[in-house]
Automatic annotation (TrEMBL), chains A, B:
One of its GO terms (molecular function) is metal ion binding. Residues 198-355 form the Peptidase M20 dimerisation domain. It comes from the Bacteria. This is Peptidase M20. Keywords: Hydrolase, Metal-binding, Protease. NCBIfam families: PRK07907.1, PRK09104.1. InterPro entries: Cyt/Met_Dipeptidase, Peptidase_M20, Peptidase_M20_dimer. GO terms for biological process: proteolysis.
């Protein structure tokens, strides 16, 4: 069967790679003010390409005060009766430090062994260009897109998307769509055809326990005053029971237990537990009654990320410190309200605090809920169908234990669901030296994007309305 | 009643203060190599004074290799049939840092409001000179001392007496005596006539808990690996039960419970618990069934002096660290063997370690047992009688919660008991800026030292032999 659109897309791969090399050569490190020119170069390159592709209403989106790195916007709304899809990507990249660990210069895309190396190439310049060039193929061959497309290309993803909520709120009408398809994210493993259908939320705080006005000498006060490190240790120890359940009352409020079907689905996923744990020199641990993947994807956590107090230099000092500190974060699952979950843990600490100590909570963190694509969502069905078409396999539905702020922000502010459809792979060193992208992912990605656009074209806006929350 | 010796001693106070000022002007900070000259000046000054006083066999004592700061030795053995007392003091002082917190220069003795300020003046240059000048008064008036005296003036007390054990072992014959009388130490409180009859021992170690080969991201591993800060917190929490007893099996081995008489004695000591705790902004805490003074003096402790792991900088980092650390020390009471007590705690940690973590013990510390002067010891009786004579009150028998390595080292290596007979007061800022010594303590101290030498002269060497252990 001749597929003119896909053939065109595949034929254009040399051009895609050329564009990708030019884009990698723009050092678009948003965190580094010295690289403002690289950010602007990346924006100009993308805006030029969007203009070439006939995208209209092109503009830079910012919060009302114009602050932050602008997001790029463009639209082609030329498929009456078809769904409108907001395609998300980002043009900013992580800093390249530590530079000395790069085998080739980070802002020069270099090919080795079927891979292209460069900062931001996998996260997410190549996946973004795959999405854009699949659109370009429809435009070149058919003269138009099969669905209505709005593009939102963010410039602050790697710095925590501080302006994104304000951009979504300010440009709510402009950004209205039926669903969001993200060219950012990552496929789980090279050996699996999989779709990510959920991520955990997160929240956190910092705690300070104080037992005296000053540090005390253990000879003069040892045994007659409370030691804040003992108090804090007891509080931390009390957060989990012997089975690894979190003991804070109310913490699990709203958590929906995984269904038997979901558990069976997870259980069916090939997962080499031995290899996973031996790679990190650790042993499986966690909540009783759940497998490792269930723990990671379906169960919330409380973790101390840092803890300190007293004398931590060389040698010994017989001090009873007067204060002790810990930084805690939580990973949350669907159904949990981040604020309530955080307060449950704080209330537990307060309830277990002995009368000899005081407790101070600080360190407000950004927080967000977990996210899961509804099982029946038409965009998810389109993604499944696209991957079945290109791979011949039914993709496994996987989740991630980390948080994807985009999905939660878009859900909360636009009421839309998001499907992650990146062709990065999770081992491609993003956020680390020697980031790379597999050249073989380019034809895979183009074929899948061409197909998902066709699958979406088979759906109607009405199918999405049941899922839209705003 | 005319007391020529005491009168002579009191008449010589201006000279004592002059000598004290000269001695304070020698910056004898043993820890600071740049102050070697100050150490030598202090030694020379004391040696000159000992020569003037007719002390014989004067020499500098070191370990066989000549390392470390020498201790000064001298003897007057001219009281046949009388006990031989080893009088201990030290000529080194703490560093003066932080210099900016001193109101007057630390190495210049300045008088203000009935106090002399200067580094080392209370710890223990003034108490040492009080002891020496009381001896000088006997020599000046009677031509001889009432008991046999050996002087040992150490130069490494403030740096932990690293050479003292080797000095005692090397010069064991030279230093043989019936008991040790220390001009170092401190009276507990200005408002109480008291003798210190016991101190706690100490030991310690450092612990490292490891759960993985590297730090892990809480999104990728949260919930499936053990968090070493949780493991360490649980271990620390497990060290004490709900009543504040130490839960490590065997830790209390050998501990002799305080007798009813001892408890009554302690209970009779005026102790303003409210004032003590409000001064440090803390609340009473500790082992159930004991008063604060019993906890401090008669009960052993385990304290975490420092604990750390993970991210402890500003903000948040969603890391699961792979290791966590704690520094622990113990305070020990009579009957406890330091090594066994330490091993009991280490064994407890190992026994409670989950299979997901490994434990490493390091940080060998100097350690020593608790010390208590035997209740019937003749030197203790002499001290009681001397204080009754000078104050008209029976001194209270108090202990300290801290450790006095001298007493334990002398007991272990020379088999001798030590009575602390310093006229420093514990509020005189030793080891801190603006160290001072009350001028009023000089006549008190001289009278008490003159009297204790007379009281010792009433005893016979045979009375001591039952207590000598080597």
């Amino acid at each position: 069967m001749k597929d003119s659109v896909l053939n065109h897309a595949l034929d254009q791969q040399p051009r895609l790679i050329e564009t990708l090399k030019t884009l990698v050569a723009c050092p678009s490190v948003g965190a580094d003010p010295a690289m403002a020119e690289g950010m602007e170069d990346a924006r100009n390159l993308l805006e030029t390409r969007l203009a070439e592709m006939g995208f209209q209403n092109r503009q830079r989106l910012t919060p009302p005060d114009g602050s932050g790195q602008p997001a790029l916007y463009g639209e082609r709304l030329e498929a009456p009766g078809k769904p409108t899809i907001l395609i998300y990507a980002h043009y900013d990249v992580q800093p390249a430090d530590p530079l000395e660990k790069w085998e080739t210069p980070p802002f020069e895309a270099v090919e080795r062994d079927g891979r292209l190396y460069g900062r931001g190439i996998s996260d997410d310049k190549a996946p973004m260009l795959i999405a854009l060039e699949s659109l370009a193929a429809f435009i070149a061959v058919d003269g138009k897109l099969p669905v209505n497309v709005k593009l939102l290309i963010e410039g602050e993803e790697e710095t925590g998307s501080p302006s994104l909520p304000a951009i979504l709120e300010t440009h709510r009408d402009l950004l209205q769509a039926d669903a969001v398809l993200s060219a950012d994210g990552a496929r789980w493993r090279p050996d699996l055809v999989a779709l990510n259908v959920g991520s955990r939320g997160n929240t956190g705080f910092e705690v300070r326990v104080q037992t005296a006005a000053q540090d005390l000498h253990s000879g003069r006060y040892g045994g007659i005053v409370a030691n804040p490190l003992h108090v804090l240790s007891s509080l931390i120890a009390s957060l989990h029971d012997a089975d690894g359940h979190i003991a804070a009352e109310g913490f699990y409020d709203g958590v929906v237990a995984p269904t038997e079907a979901e558990r069976a689905e997870i259980d069916a996923i090939p997962f080499d537990e031995g290899a996973t744990f031996s790679a990190i020199g650790a042993k499986p641990s966690g909540e009783a009654g759940y497998s490792s993947l269930e723990r990671l994807w379906m169960r919330p956590t409380v973790d101390v990320n840092g803890m300190w107090g007293g004398y931590i230099g060389a040698g010994s000092k017989t001090v009873i410190p007067n204060e002790a500190f810990a930084k805690l974060t939580m990973r949350l699952v669907p159904g949990q309200d981040p604020q309530s979950a955080k307060e449950a843990v704080i209330n537990h600490l307060r309830a277990n605090l002995p009368a000899t100590a005081t407790l101070e909570i600080s360190g407000e963190r950004g927080q967000g809920g977990a996210y899961a694509v509804p099982a029946g969502h038409p965009l998810l069905a389109a993604a499944v169908a696209a991957l079945e078409h290109t791979s011949g396999e039914t993709p496994l539905k996987v989740r991630i234990g980390a948080s994807l702020p985009l999905t939660e922000i878009v859900s909360r502010l636009l009421g839309l669901d998001t499907v992650m459809f990146s062709f990065a792979l999770s081992d491609e060193n993003f956020h680390a030296p020697n980031e790379f992208f597999r050249l073989s992912s380019i034809p895979d990605g183009l074929a899948s994007w061409v197909q998902i656009l066709r699958e979406i074209a088979k759906t109607s806006p009405a199918q999405y309305s049941a899922y839209r929350r705003a």
